[in-house]
Amino acid sequence: MNRFAIAVFAGVSTVLLGAAQQFQPGNPAPNFAAAEVKTTNLGSQTYLLQGEGANVVVAVGNDGLIMIDTQFAEMNDKLAAAVEAISPRPVRHIILTHFHRDHTGGNAFFAARGANIVAHEAVKTRLAAGTTNGLTGNVMAAYPEAGLPKQTYNNAGVMIRQGGRVAEVKHVVGHTDGDSYVYFRDANVLVTGDIVTLGRYPNIDVPYGGGIDRMIEGVDVILAAGNDNSKVVPGHGPLGSKDRVVEYRQVLVQARERIAKLIAEGKSEDEAVAARPNADNDAKLGVTPQQAGNFVRVVYRSLK
Ligand SMILES: [Zn+2]
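A: This is the predicted complex of the input protein with zinc ion.
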């Protein structure tokens, strides 16, 4: 992207992508005061918790809990209350699917209550250094030591065990450079992080290792995990299934093809947005023009 395009993008899209590390692009800022945490029983002592920010999954072991992601710090009290309503046992391990604040904001809070924070080593690197939005310069400040993962793993992944429960944690590309998905085999629940978001377009964090091709690659890994009957918990959006992930993959593939074509025709990023290449899927997903445009921008940027 040339300097003119960056200037145009920054001018036009500050509101759109300025908070992309915090919020899904184009979505309004969360209303934490009004937020409630909804709990869904996925069976086999495994629960989905939905509030503001990431979908959270809790697996109950006979002497403690394994939790996936922590939502925003602003949700700490409500999330903790929802977890306690499931089980009085302590959260022993928290596995982070990636570094974004809507998935990691509660780290220090839950660590202070005794949770071991576990993540891919790249997540720790990002959180320890702080991150800057490549377009707007918005800063996500470095996390204090208390909010950093205590246990890290490399691309080989890790198995986290607690009280008879096993979280199979695997590294996957490419919403960021440190994504993981988690499989609870006993409950047949796949927790995808933001490699999969249902009912909306995904964000792709291009400055921090995300890209549309890597994202499709990651979706293929998730489709190969578990089995046809796996319950799929996306990073955001409703509980899904493998069929829903197949539909989602198709949306990504179509966007990639269409935007690559516009790039080959010499279209600028703004021209690509204006061409509304995904109009059919925009309508199916019911996204706003702003959300539709943001998705075009991140795909465009990852192909450029
Ligand atoms: Zn994210």
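Confidence is low (pLDDT under 50) at residues 1-25. The pocket of zinc ion is lined by residues 98, 100, 175, 194, 203 (CB under 6 Å).
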